[in-house]
Amino acid sequence: MSLVKKILLIVLVLYIGIVVLFESWLGYSQPMGDGMVTIKTTSDEGAISRRVVSLLKSNDNLYIARNHWPKRWYDQALANPEITVESAGTTNNYIAVPVTGDEYNRVDSDNPLPTFFRFLTGFPPRYVLRLDPR
């Protein structure tokens, strides 16, 4: 193996390590900041999970997005779309509706992810759910 290939392989392994460490830290610490909310989703077995996510806004609608490789909460919301959102001591119930097409493009454009954040998370695909009041 040539020296260039070895260096590229080392850089790739280091990058994957950085992504795994960053995603693991986020999953463990679930930091709260401006624009962040806690959602509760329910598994098919009835177990309730809590996850901190960013609340997105577009055209007077509320959205949440899967911006990371770990996706358990997103899969649970698709399977059981009745979710609870907690923010600043207030709790509201919603139906999570998958967003595609023009609506997805608008929400994504209105709420862009910084390139550095996308780099740290390994450029995962982004999936968006609209929160319709229940």
Describe this structure in words.
- Strands 1-2-3-6-5-4 form a six-stranded antiparallel beta barrel.
- The protein has 134 residues and is of the alpha+beta class.
- The chain is elongated.
- The chain is 38% helix and 35% strand.
- It contains four helices and six strands; from the N terminus they run αβββαββααβ.
- 17% of the residues are buried.
- The chain has a single domain (3-133), classed as Roll (Pnp Oxidase, Chain A), CATH 2.30.110.10.
- It has helices at residues 3-29, 72-79, 101-110, 115-120, and strands at residues 36-42, 48-58, 61-66, 82-87, 90-99, 127-133.
- The model has no long low-confidence stretch (mean pLDDT 92).
Present the secondary structure layout.
Elements: H1 3-29, E1 36-42, E2 48-58, E3 61-66, H2 72-79, E4 82-87, E5 90-99, H3 101-110, H4 115-120, E6 127-133
Antiparallel strand pairs: 1-2, 1-4, 2-3, 3-6, 4-5, 5-6
The percentage helix is 25-40%
**Class derived from helix and strand content:** alpha+beta
Q: If you average the pLDDT, what whole number results?
A: 92
Number of helices: 4
Within CATH, the superfamily carries the name: Electron Transport, Fmn-binding Protein, Chain A
Rg (C-alpha, Å): 17 Å
**Any idea how many domains?**
1
CATH architecture: Roll
- Main beta-sheet strand count, sense and barrel state: 6 strands, antiparallel, barrel
First-last Cα distance: 59 Å
What is the H/E string? HEEEHEEHHE
